[in-house]
Design a protein that fits this description.
By secondary structure, this protein is mostly helical. It contains 2 helices and 2 strands; from the N terminus they run E-E-H-H. Helices cover 58% and strands 6% of the residues.
Amino acid sequence: MNVTRVTREGKKLEAPVTLFAAIEADDHEFLRSVAFRERRSLADIVREAIHDYRKKKKQRSGRAAAASL
């Protein structure tokens, strides 16, 4: 069964997957406090962090490819 979910930004998740990850307690507290301050879910904060990480990696790999020319 394919369930579509909507995030805070209104983007629909096409194929949501549950992520279980062990993180340090202080990292969890940081994420929790950001989520609370911004009135967002932890999942939304993690999605944003993953999106930003992927974007950063893509930019770095593009620069590395350009540097090798």
